[in-house]
Amino acid sequence: MSATFALSAAAPVGRAAAASTSLRQRLLKSSPRQPGGARRTTRSGTVYARVSGTERTSTTSQISSQIKDIRSQMEEDEDLNTLMAGLRGTNIDDSDFAADGVKMRVVDLDKIKAEGGDDDRLPLYYDPELIAQYWRRRPGAVAQRILQLSTIAGSFITGIIADLVTNKTSENSVKRAIQLREIVTSLGPAYIKLGQALSIRPDILSPQAMTELQKLCDKVPSFDNKIAFDTLERELGCKWQDIYSELGPDPVAAASLGQVYKGKLKSNGDIVAVKVQRPAVLETVSIDLYILRRVGVALRSVPQINTDVVGLLDEWAERFFEELDYVKEGDNATKFAASIEDDLPQVVVPRTYSEYTRRKVITSQWLDGEKLSQSTADDVGDLVNIGVICYLKQLLDTGFFHADPHPGNLIRTPDGRLAILDFGLMTNIDDNIKFGMIEAIAHLIHRDYDAIVEDFVTLDFIPEGVDLKPILPPLARVFDQALEGGGAKNINFQEVAADLAQITFDYPFRIPPYFALIIRAIGVLEGIALVGNPEFALVDEAYPYISKRLLTDDSPRLRESLRYMVYGKGQVFDADRLIDVLEAFETFSVASRTSRGNMESEAAAAATTTAAAAPGGFDLNQIFAQIQAGLTPPAAAASTARGGDQDAQTREALQFVLSPQGSIFREFLLDEAVKGIDALSRDNAARVLQQVGLGDATVPLLLPGALLPRSVRLSPRVTDDDRATVESVTKLLNFLLRGSRTADPSKVARELGPLLPAVATEVLPELISRLNSRVAARTIREVFGDQLTSTPLAAGAASPR
Questions:
Q1: Adjacent-strand bridge partners of 253
Q2: Which pLDDT band holds residue 608 (cuts at 50, 70, 90)?
Q3: Is 718 exposed, middle or buried (0-12, 13-18, 19+ CB in 10 A)?
Q4: CA-CA distance, 670 to 767, in Å (whole number)?
Q5: Distance from CA of residue 421 to its chain's centroid?
Q6: How many C-beta atoms lie closer than 10 Å to residue 117's C-beta?
Q7: For residues 771 and 674, is the Cβ–Cβ distance under 8 A?
């Protein structure tokens, strides 16, 4: 995910840079191919990457290390560093009040009422046609608002025109961005929110413009308290003193949509936050959207603008209208809290008092604390990790995503928990996107670039039906250079930016809105983490949760992703890859306990040995010999007290494999277990016969219908694949059984006793059945030999591997 994030960030930078024709030409001309880079061949004018037929993979630790190198070099590039700082929310102004002198202009409600009838009302949801009908009947109000906007933004628009005429657009981009930031606050809530939404869209704005818009302050001067209290009483239908024993008298914060008062409920004494919506917000927002949409329709006729301005505006406006409904915000908070309460009790969501919440008023629990980004507490790193897990759960599990993540909404509470605030803006992520992200990570680990390009379509970066071949070369080159070794110093970012710039000009590549929000959320958490831990790598925190999903989710797509993760394109079982997944799952188990407040107990678990093939590890033959010699049976082991022996601890992965939660994974492993037992038994038999001098011995066997007996080799054949299977199974067992030099197999068996009876009734019958089928098929194949090809029944029986 981190590597995909880096690529996604680099692509828009290339696009933004290429917005200037001269710079684009300079980029495309100054991109010499580096020795050792991916070789390219031209066919009918199209450039392709020549990819080796040998499958290459990378471990998550290698990817983590390389991503850190990439991040370091990206931060040395001015544009990329500006972009990364912006995505991390470094420049966001999260003050509680507006700066002195700021004044917000809103529509004249009296004029609107004078032009329309009493029954003519604006829709409470976003419908561009109904909004247009409303404002077409009020041309005077529209003309007044246009004049108001023109007066405020006139100098800015004049400057933009002058830049276009003098060809100084790029040179003056920072100056114009500063001007834009300074006037947007005065234009009202629609423009403030739109500016903030654009500030995380590197596919639309240059890094410099993003930086300035992120300095936008959503705080404006508070409006009159009498108006606020009148609104409060009108919405609740009673005097405020009937509900609150204390309230105000002045707001503690004021934003473009409303302002917040601190109060106390009369019914139970709870301290609450009461947010009251600003007057004329719906009218101001809708008229501005009406004007902006008309401008967007006019821009469709400008050939130089290839962005669907109207589509982007409609997509954003629909969610913006939801922010105006405080009942919806309260429901979002309640739903979000329920979705994480079982797995993440260390994440706090303010309770919503629905009985005291209306469309323009919301009453919620008051939370004390400090902004996570400003906290100096020792547990900030732990809370960041919890935040990463929380957002991954939203992204890959619940699909209900907090879409307004910035440092001001992440709070460290006095008792050391992570509070998430403000649920007015949420987005839903469907299963196709959730599964597509996990599939993309599996493809990245196996460097399956053809599949990764397809993932860009699945994840809505590229529309269906687009020719994907030209995208493969820069994609393969950047990942190969980053993952092959040597880190970011081997990456020619100028070359990559040039290739990506060309693609984004020639093809409809875009960052989908949901992904811009994801980048923002993860970027903010990464920015906070890097302050205290410069070695922080997102992949180290994300992969454990992804492993948990892969190992426990019964979705067909995720089961296939797990199989691909372990087997790759070549369908060859990779024990190291499986161990990588299991180790990550163990890491998640520790982090999960941390989120439940077990800060002490998980420290010991985190120190468990993870050497899968350490010298002196368990010998597979010894383990089977012990079992055959009569180890303590499971029933007896179940009665053995475990509490008195602190050293007898099986590792988390083994407990998971044998637990009810591991049933999906056990099914996944059954075939490999059958192959391993079969290969091991033949390998042992071959060794024993070789030791007694019967390694090459044969025995005569008279087959039905044969005139002469057939010589059959007494010692079973052991192929290279069999030896590889034994090695893989040995490595996996060494990992599961901790790989200790002094481990006592009988003690391990006693410790696992309580878990074994259920497994025996569920797994052993199927295991024995599959093993018998495999042995029978192999026996038929070895005894009948060439006759199999002419005997359909035998050939069918021989099909199991």
A1: 260
A2: very low
A3: middle
A4: 7
A5: 20
A6: 8
A7: yes
> Looking at this protein, which amino acid is placed at residue 507?
Y
Mean pLDDT of the chain: 73
Cα–Cα dist 565/582, whole Å: 12
pLDDT: is 196 or 274 the higher one?
A: 274
Residue 21, classed as helix, strand or coil, is helix
Cα gap 329→424, rounded to integer Å: 4
Beta strand pairing call for 698-701 and 710-713: antiparallel
- The residues with which 371 forms a beta bridge, in sequence order, are 411
Q: For residues 218 and 255, is the Cβ–Cβ distance under 8 A? A: yes
pLDDT at 603: 38
Contact 277, 254 (CB under 8 A): no
d(Cα 175, Cα 172) in Å, to the nearest integer?
5
pLDDT at 373 over 70: yes
734/743 Cα distance (integer angstroms): 11
What is the spatial distance between Cα 696 and Cα 690, in angstroms, rounded to a whole number? 8
| Rounded-to-integer distance, Cα 273 and Cα 422, Å | 12
- Per the listing, tokens 């590792």 go with 651
DSSP helix/strand/coil, 103: coil
Residue whose pair of structure tokens reads 């471990």 in the numeric block: 59
φ/ψ bin of 644: left (φ > 0), alpha (ψ from -120 to 50), beta (otherwise) = alpha
User: Who's near 745: CB < 8 A, 6+ residues apart?
Assistant: 618, 622, 623, 626, 631, 737
CA distance 48 to 453: 13
Q: Where are the alpha helices (DSSP H) in 484-574?
A: 493-506, 513-532, 538-552, 556-567
* pLDDT at position 30: 37
**Both tokens of residue 692?**
């007694």
109 residue type, one letter: L
Q: Across residues 176-195, what is the average pLDDT?
A: 78
Strand partners, 276: 259, 361
Per-residue CA distances from 159 to 43, 166, 210 (Å): 46, 10, 19
pLDDT of residue 596: 55
CB 372 within 8 A of CB 410: yes
Residue 14 has pLDDT above 60, yes or no: no
Let me know how long the chain is: 801
Which 8-state DSSP code applies to residue 715?
A: S
Task: Please tell me whether the peptide bond between 139 and the residue prior to it is cis, using omega within 30 degrees of 0.
Answer: no
Characterise 254 by phi-psi region: left (phi > 0), alpha (psi -120 to 50), beta (else). beta
| 3-state class percentages of the chain: helix first, strand second, coil last, to nearest 5 | 60, 10, 35
288, 325, 404, 422: the catalytic one is 404
- The CA distance from 243 to 541, in Å, is 45
Its pTM stands at: 0.72
Task: Say if CB 627 and CB 681 are below 8 A apart.
Answer: no
Question: Which range among 419-428, 577-586, 606-615 shows the weakest confidence by mean pLDDT?
Answer: 606-615
- Output DSSP code: residue 489: G
Distance of CA 192 to the CA centre of its chain: 28
Confidence at residue 623, expressed as pLDDT on a 0 to 100 scale: 40
CB within 8 A of 359, min separation 6: which ones?
124, 235, 277, 324, 325, 326, 327
Measured at the CA of 142, the angle between CA 140 and CA 144, to 5 degrees, comes to 70
Is 455 one of the catalytic residues?
A: no
pLDDT for 211: 73
CA torsion through residues 789, 793, 798, 799, sign: positive
What does DSSP assign to residue 486? Answer: S
Q: Which residue bears the tokens 């199989």?
A: 563
Comparing C-alpha atoms, which of 82, 78, 89, 74 is closest to residue 5?
A: 74
pLDDT higher than 60, residue 700: yes
pLDDT at 477 over 60: yes
